[in-house]
Amino acid sequence: MNSYINQVDFFKGNNPEDIAKQYGTPVYVYNEEIIREHMAAVGKVITKYPYTANYSVKANTNIEILKLALDEGINCDAMSPGEITLLLKAGFPAERIFFVSNNVSAEEMDFAVKAGVTVSLDSLDQLDRFGQVNPGGRCAVRINPGVGAGHSEKVITAGKNTKFAIAEADIDEIFAIAKKYDLKIVGINQHIGSGFLDPQPYLDAVANLLRIADRFENLEFIDFGGGYGIPYHKLDDEAPFPMEDFKKKLEPILDEFVERYGKAPLFKSEPGRYCVAEGSLILSRVQAIKQNAGVKYVGTDVGMNTLIRPAMYDSYHDVELVRDGKVVDRVDMEEVNVSGPICETGDLIAKHRMLPVAKTGDLVAVLDTGAYGYSMASPYNSRPRPAEVMICRDGSLKQIRRRETIEDLLAYF
Ligand SMILES: Cc1ncc(COP(=O)(O)O)c(C=O)c1O
Questions:
Q1: Cα of 225 to ligand 1 centre, how many Å?
Q2: Rounded to the nearest whole angstrom, what is the distance from the C-alpha of residue 16 to the centroid of ligand 1?
Q3: Ligand 1 contact via 201 beta carbon (within 6 Å)
Q4: Which of 19, 60, 68, 72 has the most CB atoms less than 10 A away?
């Protein structure tokens, strides 16, 4: 593909140069239509049985993005009281929020219980603490289905090498703790990892979780987790997550369980990345070009403070060059490193990348940054975080978060 931006008409007639000038660079730009389409798609993963997708808000907690999820009729999962608060503020009723907790304090559990949000506990110790906080209460437990998958070792959250969830071998202990505190285990959940394009490990984990579910009586819900990947190498025509094929393979696994269990509980999933990654890019300005030891560096203002994924996971993001408001054709390319303004050698957004020849003053568009982009951004090197702008369905532009200022940074002291 020559240009994703052009192929999907990402800017809907807006000039990216004008956006960069109006909001400054770097700037996160979202396309409402693309995000809505992805949210609607995850809402239809299961159609035969009661089902809801929980958008996993850690991927992107901008309140305007949360409102899109609300409007598309999907629910959400939260990882902290902060995320629960943002969801309540966006208009989600407590019963549409699921707190998938990990190593939290009694106060955080109490916060969720008082807000009316169902909590999932992910260790026996935390289940015991929950029993002390909320005897006679309802909760879910996170189970390790024994299978993990993901784009990096660091995001595989099930299987042998992870801090998450309760092992199948400890299930009797779950029942003992539940009995001790008169807790009702109303749901079980899992999450095997993040960013896989092959659905097979997820299908295997679903089958495992459903086998484990047989041991729990009267479950109200079973949550299979998220993790559906997106094609980060789209300029090289990488295939997307095979959603239709995945759905076809998932259904018979559910059929078998429902028959055995005697009823269909509410099935859930927890996709984050799939909902928001592709509907977003970062616009950044080329500030300097240089050669170091035979390597050409395109120095920009998007660094690991704005987008940490490449430095943290060695993640790949496609990059397009924009000059005078237009995408530069991918011809006459050269190999470059795209670097940022941060005082770290690892501050590289793209390594050994073929790009059209860049000039100082060009814009660089870093694609697929809507998930784990702004939500992982930091003010490292005391650089204020960027603005976020939405291209609305009607083509209008809406600033959905203002650029942080140096005064904002000073306000903590
Ligand atoms: C418990 C849980 N659920 C859902 C997700 C969402 O994963 P993804 O964004 O890959 O769909 C995560 C991501 O880390 C997670 O930890």
A1: 7
A2: 31
A3: no
A4: 60
Alpha-carbon distances of 331 from 3, 39, 91, 363, 366, rounded to whole Å: 11, 35, 47, 17, 18
Residue 100 Cβ < 6 Å to ligand 1 = yes
Residue-wise pLDDT tens digits, 170-223: 999 999 999 999 999 999 999 999 999 999 999 999 999 999 999 999 999 999
Quick one: which atom of ligand 1 is closest to the CA of 194?
10
Cα separation, 338 vs 351, in Å, equals 7
- pLDDT tens sequence across 276-331: 999 999 999 999 999 999 999 999 999 999 999 999 999 999 999 999 999 999 99
Q: Confirm or reject: Cβ of 59 under 6 Å from ligand 1.
A: yes
Q: Which domains are seen in the chain, by residue range? A: 4-29+279-410 (2.40.37.10), 43-276 (3.20.20.10)
Residue 381 DSSP label: G
Residue type, 121: L
Output the residue whose Cα is nearest ligand 1's atom 1. 191
